[in-house]
Amino acid sequence: MNKQLGQILYEHNSHEQLRPASVTKVMSILLIMEALDTGKISLSDQVPCSENAASMGGSQIWLDPRETLTVDEMLKAICVASANDYKVQLRHKKF
């Protein structure tokens, strides 16, 4: 993209949805840490799981849509196991 003009110079399958990549997970971790720092969320907050998050595929820890985990547990799963399912679920928590 040309930053000054906002013009797309090249794109390929730009609307295709893909599994979250590691850079996306790192950015999500940054947002989670900022939300923790500002008090918008806490490590003990409970996060209910969803079918959508459980169906992510790729690197995951086999999230069960019937369980509820803490932000702390989900953050550890994202950082240690690169868990797509947990990252997707935490992304939907309102920061």
How does this structure look, described?
With 95 residues, the protein is mainly alpha-helical. The chain has one domain (22-91). Helices cover 41% and strands 6% of the residues. It has helices spanning 22-37, 51-54, 71-81, 84-91; strands spanning 46-48, 68-70. A two-stranded antiparallel sheet has the order 1-2. Helix 1 packs across helix 4 (84-91) and helix 3 crosses helix 4.
Overview features:
mainly alpha; two-stranded antiparallel ribbon; 41% helix
Strand content: 5-15%
Q: What is the number of helices? A: 4
Please give the share of residues in helix: 40-55%
**What topology, given as strand order, has the largest sheet?**
1-2
Distance between the termini: 29 Å
The ordered H/E elements are: HEHEHH
Q: Give the mean pLDDT.
A: 77
* Residue runs with pLDDT of under 50 for 5 or more positions: none
Architecture blueprint of SSEs:
Elements: H1 22-37, E1 46-48, H2 51-54, E2 68-70, H3 71-81, H4 84-91
Antiparallel strand pairs: 1-2
